[in-house]
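Thread title: Can someone regenerate the structure for this chain?

I was given the following input by a collaborator and told the matching structure tokens would be attached. They weren't. Posting the sequence so someone can regenerate them.
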Amino acid sequence: MNSQQLNALLSNLTLEEVRAEKYRRSLREFTKAAWPTIEPGVEFKNNWHIDAISDHLQAVAEGTGIKRLIINVPPRHMKSISVAVALPAWTWVTQPHKKFLYASYASSLSIRDSVKCRRLIDSPWYRTHFGDKFKLTDDQNQKQRFENDQTGYRIATSVGGALTGDGGDIICIDDPHNSVEADSSAVRQGVLDWWDQAMQTRLNNPKTGAFVIIMQRLHEQDLTGHILANEFGDEWDHLCLPARYELGHPTPNRSALGFTDPRTKEGELLWPERMDEKTLTTLERSLGSYAAAGQLQQRPSPKGGGILKASWWVPWESEEMPNNIEYVLQSWDTAFEAKESSSFSARTTWGVFKYQGVTCAIVLECWYDKVSYPDLRRIAQESYEDWAPDAVLIEKKASGQSLLQDLRMAGVPVLAYSPDRDKEARAHASSAMLEDGRIFYPSSRKWAKDLIDICAAFPAHPNDDVVDTCTQAWLRLRKGWFVGHSEDPEDDEPVEKQRMTLYG
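Best answer:
Regenerated them for you:
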């Protein structure tokens, strides 16, 4: 239809019919108009990135050049509303037969957006403009699945969830990874296997069907990284929208629509009306460099590399340790046996103290070796007697289980540690506290510098057992409100603590 024909059509329509025609033709306009219905009482702040996302989703729905689309965008930037709420409701205006399949890392998230979409379709606003196009069926009108009388449906599921044979014309994956678990290689691989072995076979028609993946980056080998590294990765359109503009970003935009990021200055913000400099800086500090690099910059590794950077450790220049240490924690990682091929048993001891009004921790000593269990038990007992820590943290694995029992029988205040994440995930989880300048080391001690070198080389360094003692100690200290992060709320609870006066 040319412009003259369109003008002739519009001239014969009522105002509401004109509006409906505008919304029907543009997902951009539909989303803006539907916003008060989707999020009542919340002001809509439009931005170019929302238009870009809408335009690419429209191309997917209309089958005009995009069948494989990845969108990487920071959280709280309208990604789920655009993909999971607006897209199916808009598509059904002209293609009510379309079948949608949605999956997120948690079924609660998929169902949340399914409910929002159904409420939009049931709303007076939607029925006023498009009520003659289709009706929702009564027998399939649930939170997880609803259908219309033109054979279209929208199904919500979770990554790894049962699909009972259902497929889709458009399959949308919205945040397939949990940010807490994405650093776990086992959990992450489970998502990739689910994608490779289950979801790629779910298109009703592989020739005409489409995939949309929208997510924040969480790891170099997350689903986005996995797909782009694949031999067919160049078949995907890719919108990469970092919170700060970054010249030479490692994953540049690739768009069949010819889209280019309109920003030109290094560091220019993506959505300053919603996330201004102060808000973004606070969020970056709260997340830490690693998490911020992925979730905000869509580049899941900091430019400087390294999870536990050497430059983040704060030197304690005095030969004397702080005279205000209030709490001492000893952290252990134990091996199975004293063989050349076995891992190290390792120990670090930490003191909690106030420095310039901020609660921090300093490493007091570090030990690691390959020893037999009788020697390990003896060393642990002697170390407790030397340092008299308030608590001894031991991971419940290998010889650690036996050590826990033996030390408890000897009256040592032992805390059992059962990690719910792998080594790398623990390092990521604890790195923000290190980066925040809360962790000190005695600068005159060679063993302390060796410890820092080992941590900086992780996960490539063979002695990751020492790193484990550090990360589990930091996580325990933060969880127990001994040492926090600058973005944590202040702790008002007093803690029983013990003063130390000597270095090891």
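The chain has two domains: 3-295, 310-479.
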